[in-house]
């Protein structure tokens, strides 16, 4: 049997251990978070602001998920950090992304920058061919470009780093580009001159390359490759329609914000959002929430869309706000969240104005909405007044409200500058384009841009616009309507 002294020692040890366990338990107690205040007006106001702020983030995530996560999705491209080439232009079958262009075959690179930077290698190209890589973060900011306009056609090695990367430019790297968010997108455009040019585009696309920095450096570095970041348990997105009404929108926003370190210009904004449990790693339990409080969230969403529609009517449709204002860097947008929402809704991943501008036709010369079910339209470019582009221009047809390409018997979704040799000129040297659902006749069909049997919009794209396109010296011509004659 143990002695009395040893027994007391044993008791002391056990007591110390027990006290330590109690202390540890106290330290590990979860922090009790304050509930959402039951203040309908306050919650509705903040949820409205959070929705306008978060819509581009959530819709961007919806597309990234379909492209790089959901292998069952018809729009799935491939794994993160791998370049996936589409060796054709967009067609009506491409439905994940609104207002796709059909001028430049796309290549997509989903960027996961949590482990280490990714190096993109680009081959040298002929001088006449336009190409670009648009880098887009989770906010939908166009945080950088490489391509014909910015870096030329000599090729190079471009390193894309996450927000936490620090260091000197590694040997062999042409340029270091840093993303504000841990996930993002490299969106490649390679100009297709005509159908016979497709083999050349395929060859260029095959030479695009993406690899981790450690692999790019290879034996040139003694630094071992970092341990890979843990797999992401991606949340399933909701549909575009549900994004307008489902309060689960806010939980998706919370999930994506985990990959978005707080920007110093938004500290107070994010603190305000926290009052309604919007923020990285927050979780809102709508199933058990008070019904009036839950209604405040959905009413805030409704109010956001009312504000958006008013903005479109009073600012965009009047020409006071143009496409060049709603796409670009954080510095360009200056945290104007309605601009950012407008860009995402009208044409997510739109280019910054120095790369391309998008004069949009949603109204005719009389200020009426476009509808080809009962009207035909023409647009005439006077001689010497074609869209001023250093690269090329195009005019593309989209149905509404989907903003997708329109199927037609010609499989023609646009008219662009490479088609000029085949377009019929007017007697004075100008060019008239016929925008209508039925053929204007064999003699005019070369200039026909087929429209749907209903509402539509056309986007005029000017790639690498000349100064006169940016400063307003050049004015786009109006779209003129005529009633369809009934038989």
Can you offer a commentary on this structure?
Residues 24-32 have low confidence and may be disordered. The chain has helices at 4-27, 40-68, 198-207, 213-217, 249-257, 267-273, 291-316, 323-326, 330-333, 337-347, 467-470, and strands at 83-85, 106-112, 118-122, 131-137, 142-147, 156-161, 175-178, 183-190, 209-212, 356-357, 360-361, 375-381, 389-399, 414-416, 431-436, 448-450, 456-465, 479-483. With 487 residues, it is of the alpha+beta class. The N and C termini lie far apart (115 Å). The protein has a five-stranded antiparallel sheet, with helices on both faces. The chain is globular, with a radius of gyration of 27 Å.
Which helices and strands appear, and what pairs or packs with what?
Blueprint: H1 4-27, H2 40-68, E1 83-85, E2 106-112, E3 118-122, E4 131-137, E5 142-147, E6 156-161, E7 175-178, E8 183-190, H3 198-207, E9 209-212, H4 213-217, H5 249-257, H6 267-273, H7 291-316, H8 323-326, H9 330-333, H10 337-347, E10 356-357, E11 360-361, E12 375-381, E13 389-399, E14 414-416, E15 431-436, E16 448-450, E17 456-465, H11 467-470, E18 479-483
Parallel strand pairs: 6-7, 15-16
Antiparallel strand pairs: 1-2, 2-8, 3-6, 3-9, 4-5, 4-8, 10-17, 11-17, 12-15, 12-18, 13-14, 13-17
Strand order of the largest sheet: 1-2-8-4-5
- The number of distinct helices, counting runs of at least 4 residues, comes to 11
Strand content: 15-25%
Oligomeric state, counting identical vs distinct chains: single chain
Largest sheet: 5 strands, antiparallel
Radius of gyration: 27 Å
Structural class: alpha+beta
Q: What integer is the average pLDDT?
A: 92
End-to-end separation: 115 Å
Order of helices and strands: HHEEEEEEEEHEHHHHHHHEEEEEEEEHE
